[in-house]
Every structure is written in structure tokens, then in C-alpha cells.
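$ run holo --ligand "BJW" --emit C-alpha cells
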Amino acid sequence: MGTARLSRYRSIVVLTGAGVSAESGLGTFRDKDGLWTQYDLNEVATPQGFAADPLKVLSFYNARRKNLADAKPNAAHFALAQLEAVHEGSFLLVTQNIDDLHEQAGSPAPLHMHGLLQQDLCHRCGWRGPNSGDIPYDNVCGACGELGTLRPDVVWFGEMPYEMERIERALDDCALFISVGTSGTVYPAAGFVALARASGAHTVELNLEPSDGQSLFEERHYGPASEVVPAFVGSLQKPE
Ligand code: BJW
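-- output --
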């Protein structure tokens, strides 16, 4: 019997998007009933929108915090945690998602490049802290004492995603790049597949349907994440 295909890949980078959490009941952004069909992203997901109407933006994220409180990871989150546990080389799970479902499934340290929903950020002094409840309109920052300066610690359009240098270093050294449940429309994440290819990585897309960047992936599997992700992770561990 041969060795498992997984042993071919010394370093793995996985990128996840909203599709990995869709079957956990969290809405995606650009699908038929996605968030951006119900809300104007310029109003709720930009620093300008927040400055213009903080109450609207805080209400939008307070409601999403409530929704997240009941969400549980699905088979795709668990399969990715299991892959990381068995892989002997380097492994970086980068998520664009602001939910904590990868952590709940056992992934030890997912990198949240677009921030975390259940964390507050003071835009005046830079203080950060956990909060799964509401941010009230008349909030006071516990660190600087300023009134009305707290926001959710998420990355809006025009803001720099977190830990880009670390992600780029991992992509530079990547042998296998797996993209799960992302439409490939938002940069810089949409450009990761090209960076991985430039490093000579094998590139895999797992999605409900082909993304905008599908032609950049050498291997593609389409269907619900709860099915295609465990199947792909299983195939990596089978002897060749
Ligand atoms: C399933 C499924 C199932 C469904 N199973 N799959 C022009 C050209 C190029 C770039 C730009 C440009 N103009 C502006 C930019 C930059 C901009 C950008 O990319 N804009 C594009 C829209 C063009 N990017 C930025 O501004 C970023 N920052 C940046 O570039 O910094 C550099 C810089 C800074 C300052 C000055 C200059 C440069 C920041 C981007 C921040 C994105 N923020 C959001 C909101 C986060 C908080 C929140 O959640 O509210 O992040 S927007 C939203 O999109 C969210 C997501 O993480 C992100 C990606 O979405 P994702 O995950 O791909 O979801 P969907 O809905 O798009 O797709 C779902 C997928 O799942 C689909 O493919 C389905 O098929 C699939 N699916 N069910 C498996 N069951």
C-alpha cells in the first residue's frame, strides 16, 4: 500500500469564506439571499458608513452577534480541524469569516484576516476586548474613557486586513492551497490563489459552485461544504 497523498504537501494554507459557515445558519454576502442583497455595504461595512450613521452600523453588528450566539460548527469546520491535527508539516488556516466556528470545531489558531465579530475595538485608543453582547450607542471605552468610540473589531472596505505579512509568508512557502466557500471577489484574499500558484502550490477550490477565480484552481470540487470538505480531507489521507 502507498503513502497518503497528504504526505506530499509539507506546507498547507487553507482560506475559508462565508460558504463554510452557510450550513451553520450564518448568511453569506453575495448569494441570492446574502447580506449585501439586504443591506448597502457602503452604509454598514465602510468607515465612512460608520462615521455617517454609527447607530445603524452598531445595530447591524449587534443583530449579527445575536445570530452567532446560536450557531454551531458543521462537518466542514470539523474536517479542517482534523486535517490540521493530523498534518505533520506547517498549516495555516486563514478565514475571512468573523465568526468563531473554526475555534468551536477545534482549530487551534485560525487567522481572522477580517477580524472577529465578538470583539470590540476602540477607534480612538486602539483598545480591544471580547464582547458577545451589544455595543450600545452610548458606549464608553474602558481604556481611554471616551464616549461613543467602540466598534466591532471587523475589517471594513478600505481598511487593511489583519496579519497580511504572515499570510504572504505562508503563501510564499505553500505546497497546497485550499480555498473553501469564498466567491473570490474581495481583495486581498481573492489574490491568494495567484500567490500560491506563483510559489508552485497545488491549488484546490471547494465551493457550492465555481467562484470568479475558478480557472486558477487545478483541482475543483463543487457541492455543500459539509459534504465536499470532509470528502476532500478524507481523500488526502487515503493511501495512493
Ligand atoms: C457555499 C455554500 C455552501 C454558499 N457550501 N460554499 C478594485 C479592484 C480590486 C480591489 C479593490 C477595488 N476597489 C476596492 C478594492 C479593495 C477592496 C475590494 O476587494 N473590493 C472588491 C469588492 C472589489 N478590498 C478592501 O477594501 C480590503 N482592504 C484592502 O484592500 O486593504 C488595502 C487597502 C487599504 C486602504 C487603501 C488601499 C488599499 C478590505 C476588505 C474587507 C471586507 N470586509 C467584509 C466585511 C467584514 C465584516 C463583516 O462580516 O461584516 O468581509 S465584506 C465581506 O466579503 C466579508 C467577507 O469576508 C468578504 C468575502 O466574502 P466571501 O466570504 O467570499 O462571501 P461571499 O458571499 O462573497 O461568497 C460566498 C461563497 O460561498 C460563494 O462562492 C458561494 O458559492 C459559497 N457557498 N453556500 C460551500 N453551503
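-- notes --
Strands lie at 11-16, 90-95, 111-112, 115-122, 128-130, 150-154, 176-180, 202-207, 219-222.
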